[in-house]
Amino acid sequence: MINFHDLHTLKSFQALKTLPIPSVADNFTAIHVEEQNIDAGGGLTYNYSAKGVNEELLEALQALADEQQVIDKYELLLSGEMMNTGEKRKVLHHLTRAQQANDVIHEGTNLRQFYHHEQKRIAEFAQRIHTGEITGSTDKKITTVVQVGIGGSDLGPRALYLALQNLYLNKLEAKFISNVDPDDATAIIESCDLERTLFILVSKSGTTQETLANQNFVLQAAKKQNILHYDVMKHMVCVTSQTSPLAKDDRYLASFFIDDFIGGRYSSTSAVGGVILSLAFGAEVFEELLIGAAEADSQAREQSITENAALLDALLGVYERNIKNYAATAILPYSQALSRFPAHLQQLDMESNGKSVNRDGQAISYATGPVLFGEPGTNGQHSFYQLLHQGSDVIPLQFIGFTHSQCGVDYDYEASSSQKKLNANLIAQIAAFALGHTNNENMNKNFEGGRPASLIYAQQLTARALGALLAHYENKVMFQGFIWNLNSFDQEGVQLGKVLANDILHGNASSTVNQLFQIIQ
Ligand SMILES: O=P(O)(O)OC[C@H]1O[C@](O)(CO)[C@@H](O)[C@@H]1O
User: Fold this and answer.
1) How many C-alpha atoms does 455 have within 13 Å on its Cβ side?
2) Where does the record place it (predicted)?
3) Is 351 a catalytic residue?
């Protein structure tokens, strides 16, 4: 029997509140760093030696995970139970990368086979584009692919493409149009040779205003170029759900499908990320990413929190949010390739757990998802780290690092290479945040320390490691949702603004709103 309880009603949570808070510096100096490593799958390791933990706290967090039946809930989700209570849907993004998993049957369809079938169709399509069997409408080979989508139909795929473009041969260059700002579409379209460009229209719902406006923008801009024998629809494929209005449009060169059980922000391992990544790098690279994600998913099934990186990461996040009252957290990848990964995690985390009601729609009285932000190191160090070190708020830090660079090109300067400098900075920051530095004479030079950090690291940012990193965070967010008793899979909070924007455009807004709109007309 699985129970769903609000956090504050749990005995283990009440017990957690009474525990003395362990010091970050004590943990950091007392232990052998490697003792606080956990295998996170895909060649990744999660290290928590710069977190404020001790044995007593770990036991209390384990009790919380057990009482809230977090792993049982994950198993329930994997089995195809309706876990998206707001929209009354299953939650099946794990199935897109778990071809060994149990079948999930819905209204007679085997959904594991359905996702696998789409993946195979994508691989075949990508191969035909790469070999030149499918060309553009003027018989020219396709060299560029442009994804048109927004939110989950943009952020994850874009972050993953940027993360891999240094390491793998780019069979096609990829670009993205997301914002309804006409400058976004114009800049991308003008940078493309349309005869050699394939557009991927991605919208699960098929109703997103920005994406439909951008599709129209591409159609109009292409028409304006007046290219002889050019047919833009022969340059456009679609990724959508079978129930969306776009699914019925047979003008696309090809259509690939997901379904309502894959949430936008969890859709990078479905056709939403699969089409662009397979076209850009080849289906085998996308396959590697899925393997890494599946490894992280399987590590996440461990009951013991010291063997389950995503679960411990989630519990420490809840501890920092609800016991230490820290309201934000920073994602700090020491890898330029992960430049857009924090932006993807912002949607993943804040759209999932930015909630004030529980999974049954009842108000809750405790804090939920934190504010997320981040930039790659060392750029962030010269930007917002001042506040992280000496600001009045403590912000837990999530560092990500790699032993080797992706390009392998490096030079020594002052007796060390750039990669070595990058990683020396990464470790220096973790130590500075944890230990601080006392200066009683000049208080502006005093660092209190005690600022907790975690580190996820691997040898290199490969497709497999990236898949595991993506899944680690998806699972962390899911576990935190279970602990807070939220539904992490709907996003009603984004609807009000959409409705009001439509009211404004159709002249139905209130007088004040209209006056404000007129200011900017
Ligand atoms: O793929 P669609 O249906 O166009 O939705 C795009 C995005 O819009 C949202 O529904 C709301 O912003 C996201 O959750 C989603 O990723």
Assistant:
1) 24
2) Cytoplasm
3) yes
Instruction: Establish whether 106 is a catalytic residue.
Output: no
The topology (CATH level 3) of 93-288 is Rossmann fold (3.40.50)
Encoded tokens for 519: 């200011």
Token code pair at residue 456:
């996820």
C-alpha count within 13 angstroms, C-beta hemisphere, residue 368? 28
CA-nearest of 170, 153, 141 to 205 is 153
Q: Are 469 and 400 in contact (CB under 8 A)?
A: yes
Tell which phi-psi region holds residue 132, choosing left (phi > 0), alpha (psi between -120 and 50) or beta.
left
Does an H or E element contain 468, and which? helix 463-484
Alpha helix (H) residue ranges in 68-154:
70-78, 111-131
d(CA 202, CA 206): 8
Q: How far apart are CA 141 and CA 126, in angstroms?
A: 13
Paired strand residues for 401: 457
Distance 152 CA to ligand 1 centre (A): 6
Interhelix angle 271-281/111-131, rounded to 10 degrees, is: 30
Chain mean pLDDT for the chain: 97
Rounded distance, CA 490 to CA 95, Å? 19
Would you state the structure tokens that stand for residue 186, as one six-digit string?
């114009």
Upper half-sphere CA count for residue 76 (Cβ side, 13 Å) = 16
Give the CA count within 13 Å in the CB-facing half-sphere of 500: 12
Q: Identify the active-site residue in 118, 287, 295, 351.
A: 351
Question: Is 382 known to be catalytic?
Answer: yes
- pLDDT digits over 297-353, tens only? 999 999 999 999 999 999 999 999 999 999 999 999 999 999 999 999 999 999 999
- Full-model pTM: 0.97
The residue type of 255 is: S
What are the boundaries of each domain within the chain? 93-288, 492-521
**How far apart, in whole angstroms, are the C-alpha atoms of residue 144 and residue 401?**
30
Nearest one of 308, 200, 217 to 255, comparing CA atoms: 200
Secondary element (H or E) of residue 109 = strand 109-110
Q: In what order do the strands lie in the sheet with 37-41?
A: 37-41, 44-47, 453-458, 397-402, 328-333, 371-374
pLDDT in tens, 23-36: 999 999 987 888 89
CA 53 to centroid of ligand 1, rounded, Å: 38
ipTM, two decimals, is 0.98
CB atoms within 10 A of CB 376: 20
Kindly list the protein residues whose Cβ atom lies closer than 6 A to any atom of ligand 1: 149-153, 203-205, 208, 211, 264-265, 351, 491, 494
CA 268, CA 270: separation in Å to the nearest integer? 6
Phi-psi region of 397 (alpha: psi -120 to 50; beta: other; left: phi over 0): beta
